[in-house]
Specification:
Elements: H1 10-16, H2 18-36, H3 45-63, E1 69-71, E2 75-77, H4 79-106, H5 110-129, H6 133-151, H7 158-189, H8 194-204, H9 208-227, H10 235-242, H11 245-270, H12 276-301, H13 307-328, H14 331-362, H15 373-376, H16 378-392, H17 398-412, H18 416-442, H19 455-473, H20 476-491
Antiparallel strand pairs: 1-2
Length: 492
Amino acid sequence: MEFGEPTLTLGQTLWLLSPELLLVLSALIVMALDAIQLGREDKRSLPYVTLAGLAASLIATITLWGCNTRVLFVLSCDPFALVVKAVALVAVGLVVLMSDVYIRAHSRFQGEFYALLLFATMAISLLGGATNLVMIFLAFDFLSIASYLLTGFLRGDPRSAEAGMKYFLYGAALSAVMLYGMSWFYGLTGSTDLSAIASGLLEMGGPVRLVALPALILMATGFAFKIGAVPFHQWAPDAYEGAPTPVTAFLSVGPKVAGFAVIMRVFMTLVPVSFVDLTMDWRSLLMAIAVVTMTVGNLVALWQNNVKRLLAYSSIAQAGYVLIGVAAASPRGVTAVFLYLAAYVLTNLGAFAAVITFSNQTGSYMIEDYAGLGQRAPAVALVLIVCLLSLTGIPPTAGFMGKLWLFSAAIEGGLTWLAVIGVINGVISLSYYWKIMRAMYLVEPETEESLPTSPALGVALVVTVIGVLLIGVFPAPVVSVIETAAQAFFAG
């Protein structure tokens, strides 16, 4: 189904924006319920209302499958945008399941927490379909503000406040740099629409490369910050360690999904393919960032003893892997990026669900304290080891299938050397994941006390491990949907 933007009725416009509108409505309902229950400590209804809002938005997203049109001149409702929304909604739903016990134990501001998660999800959904630089900047800043507040959410915890402040200062500076790059393109072409900018660059002729490349580099700094790529990754370890652990789980997946969606739409729409030199410039830039990000993330992770900091550097390295698919700049590359992101979302959130289960009972994030977890909580340890193997890229997990597609896209695009570096980094990553596996199964526990799991966390653990194994063994249904999105994106 396809209809042009000038003929859209109010009802059609509201339908096309229904996933975002439902998220905003759900956030308002959560805040209203929180205000009504102001005197109560235990507000158990809030996470369920949040999950209902996310489920309604996901259903609305599914009903839009097949649409391919512009909305309000700044958004696109196409399969590419819908896949971004679906991945983000599933990811935040899992984060909400992990948050219930933790937030009730650590904060009385539960309504604000769930409302911020919903607003952040709405910003990610907007970024998935943004086709205008102004919309990209506004949605990015909205997501950033929600992320800063969530990172510093534990008001009585100095580490949380420090993490939020560092994240804010770093993000504010790089947002300004990104905005300057966007204004540069506006100055060159007189437009903020990606397609119009591409047309304007084509009409300019002459030394376009000399004037457009600096603007691309400035914008790339802001995008690199959002995905945690080197050299704009310094905020990640401190933010991951100081933030509430469910927020750390969100930061590890949510902004990455948004960042990679924007990177692909901007770089592959804004730069006309006829500008071969400029296209090679941005691809070379992303290749260099990918190599440095993979290598730095994996090497520094080798020295970490705190599981949250270890997963922070692991997340940085994972961003480097995904950049391989972006640098391939092909339909297979885009498919590989979103297959890997889907796998990474399930894998990383499964790992964090296990970490939260452990920390809820012990209060510890030190790897040495995971000694004997295989005996104390066999199911939790099993989920964690499956997720760590998936992050490494060991079959039959989703991480293996994602890496296989990424490396094959690189080889198909003539970037065999980049695939080889990715494989080497995957081998390095096994060294630090092994530290956790060894502690869980080969070190005797100091206590035999079992670790109970809450029902919500249990659901998150089961969903993630099943998802990791299903994508690893039967990837065809997911690949089929993502391939449709990739082809529609390139056709557009």
